[in-house]
Amino acid sequence: MNYLITSITELLTLKGKKSVRIGKELTELEIIKDAAIYISEGKIKYYGKEKEVIKKIKKNKFINIKADGVVMPAFIDSHTHAVFARPRLLDFEMRTQGATYAEIKKAGGGINRSANDIKNSDIEELSRNLIDFSKKFLECGTATAEVKSGYGLDFENEIKILKTVKESQKNAQLEMIPTFLGAHSIPSSFKSSKDYLDYLKKEVVPYVAQNKLAIYADIFCEKGYFEPKEAINYLNHLKKYGLKPKIHADQLTKSGGSVVANKVKAISADHLDFADEEYIKLLKKSDTIATFLPASNYFLGLTKYPDARKFIENANPVSLATDFNPGTSPCWNMQFVISLALTHMKMRISEAIVSATYNAACALEINDRVGMIDLGMDADIIILEVKDHRELGYYFGANLNKITFKKGKIAYEKNNTFRY
Question: Which of 187, 261, 279, 402 is a good FRET partner for 46, with 20 to 30 A between their CA atoms?
Fold first, then answer.
């Protein structure tokens, strides 16, 4: 099916260099006003001023969609934990009454609670949940999401989660990129973090790699979980199996996660609430993309957020993601993440948009085909119910997305009144 999108008040192309954007490059949206875009065979065929595009397709058959708003690349969510059995409502109640992260964990909540829920669920149930969530991502304008394991914490259930992602992809329009996060927490059945990591390396990792169940490997480097030295050893070991390193870094304390990212040359280091100038420079040296997850800070009621301005001013590559998960960030809406980036991390709207699209694509190494609007790129596009792109960070609490295209097909449409 071919589509012509007209009446575009602003077309945010993000056209530019085909590598991660830093510094001033984050402000370059390459906007075309009064624009149109033509989609054919799932790709971007033509785009530009409306009159010029229409001249090129006079004899073609297509469906015409009147945008009457902003069109831009679809969001890419590079950090989620979208496979889980049920929400952690008790954790939430405890937190609103003042309980700390550690107190909730001690009471049987936290990651281990989600692990118990996974054990009592089968792939069919988990897949139903994931497919339902995938529709919510698409509704809010996200066309691609990374999905981590990490709530299994043993061979059977970690594999169950990764197979859920693989099976769900057959029936979901949201593109899902799998990450192995077996090193998310230490199960009570293991005496130490070392024993558990040895188990993962020996029993789980070979199967994950052999069956191509994940592209990336992740670890939660934090006090009480996994220390920097063992995280370095673990991620370097997994690199031998072809799994590319990512890391949960410096979320709760300055725990050394950024040092690990530098040593293993991680694709991304995520959270970074406590990354200071020393760590920012280390991450710059390894070209590691700093992925900020402000929705989790918001949900946890924190006042401390990552220092995005220092990262940007140091020319570090940065991206944004939801951290969608049942315990600390039940948010699938990248629009809200962008609003938080502006109000709580003092990012500019242009910086936040690039971080939620093209740079997020770089964090998943798919920027050769998504994240910008250019000839031959996949038509992963959203049409927003705003006239000016700055409204995306201004209005919050509602879904501003009207239509989501995934590879040139409509994956979500608010209603059909936009066609004529």
Answer: 402
Does 68 share its domain with 175?
no
The pairing of beta strand 142-148 with beta strand 75-77: parallel
Q: How confident is the model at residue 117 (pLDDT cuts 50, 70, 90)?
A: very high
> How is the beta sheet containing 268-271 ordered, strand by strand?
75-77, 142-148, 175-183, 216-221, 244-249, 268-271, 289-292, 318-320
pLDDT score of 78: 98
Cα dihedral sign for 65, 69, 71, 76? negative
Answer yes or no: do 402 and 325 share one domain: no
Total of domains in the chain? 2
Please give the Cα distance from 284 to 290 (Å, whole number). 9
- Within this chain, do residues 349 and 377 fall inside the same structural domain, yes or no? no
Name the pLDDT band for 111 (thresholds 50, 70, 90).
confident
| CATH number of 335's domain | 3.20.20.140
* Containing structural domain, residue 300: 76-363
What percent of the chain has a predicted confidence (pLDDT) above 90?
93
- C-alpha 412/C-alpha 405 separation (Å) is 7
Distance CA(196)–CA(56), nearest Å, equals 61
Q: Which residues of 202-236 are buried (b: 16+ CB within 10 A; e: fewer)?
A: eebbeebbeeebbbbbbbbbbeebbbbebbbbbbe
Evaluate the CA torsion angle 124, 411, 208, 235 in order and state its sign: negative
